[in-house]
What we know:
40% of the residues lie in helices and 20% in strands. It is built from 15 helices and 14 strands. It has helices at residues 64-77, 109-117, 126-139, 159-162, 168-173, 183-196, 250-257, 263-272, 275-280, 285-293, 297-321, 331-336, 338-345, 357-361, 386-409, and strands spanning 5-11, 16-22, 27-35, 43-48, 53-58, 87-94, 105-106, 145-149, 205-211, 215-221, 224-228, 326-330, 368-369, 378-381. Strands 5-4-3-2-1-6-8-7 form an eight-stranded mixed sheet, sandwiched between helices. The chain has a six-stranded mixed sheet with strand order 11-10-9-12-14-13, with helices on both faces. Helix 10 packs across helix 11 (297-321). The radius of gyration is 22 Å and the shape is globular. The N and C termini lie close together (8 Å).
Amino acid sequence: MTPTRVLVLNSGSSSLKYQLLDMRDSSRLAVGLVERIGEQTSRLTHTRPATGETREQSGPIADHETALKSVAGELARDGLGLDSPELAAIGHRVVHGGMFFTEPTVIDESVLTEIERLIPVAPLHNPANLTGIRTAMALRPDLPQVAVFDTAFHTSMPESAARYAIDPAIADRYRIRRYGFHGTSHAYVARETARLLGKAQEEVNVIVLHLGNGASASAVERGRCVDTSMGLTPLEGLVMGTRSGDLDPAVIFHLARVGEMSMDEIDTLLNKRSGLFGLCGDNDMREIRRRVDEGDEAAALAFDIYIHRIKKYIGAYYAVLGSVDAVAFTAGVGENAAAVRSAAVAGLTGLGLAVDEELNAVRSGEPRLVSPGDARVAVAVVPTDEELEIATQTYALVGAAAGTAAGKEG
């Protein structure tokens, strides 16, 4: 029997998201989340999509090892345990892979060492990713574990887009360059947008706007990323929920010298107390839009700044690509906030961009076009599916080998 299941793990500092997929038809067998790991109020929510059944556990979960064992127990209750011979691999989301990892990679000690070396440029994410990987490896040391990197899709950027204009020797010594993030989402959405247009991805140029609490844009030329808005870290680029996005670097010097703020204080300001939250006290677009509709000036200004930055990136990436077939909105805000989509392309008819307000107002979980039928450039809403992308890349790497091994055993 050829194993066809892939367990996808996304380990955060105090959370563990998981999905178990059957790659024969990409169906989800189980979906779950462990929250507040390390606290007395931890919670595990486990769902069987086929039946709609949801189970919850509440109570202290001390660490990621305990969390994954709890997940394994829930899967076992459904006959989907980690010891199943149908499990082909475990795929792990890893935020930062630097320039070393350009594709999905089977994890061994050398891979773990390199991910650890990248912690200084991803201090919030890579340590948690490593914890999840090591825990899973301890539970199933015989099973292929695959790392799928957020940065990998963006490694195709030319040096002219990836390099900062600083001394190359210093940049190389400290690995300073533009890496980009949300790569699995951008890869998935760019490919699905081409499919929505009825074309191969090698035939189209797409601007992808991943708009969630974290937000990023990418210019995808015939299936290859040629530019993206996030840089060395996820701080650069669009205005986000709590991150400032693009900022004059001298602001940091000014805050340190004149404001007498420490580097840690500035880091907290720009990453956790800026963006929409810093501008108006809210980082939930639904709440911001409610406040805008009620005449709240702070919320209106925050929204306008947010949209202004998106428009700048649309225009910039139009210039980078030369011609554009589609602009695709994805992630929580991009998929659900019709007002954001409408405002982002308002006034861009000269670039061939417009939305049909009636189509744009429709809520749906399906990929769809919201531009007029005669638009030169399609405006698409494409729900992202990072877990499916991770599972697909993982299975493509290990599935054939698993099938060969099963054949030999038979």
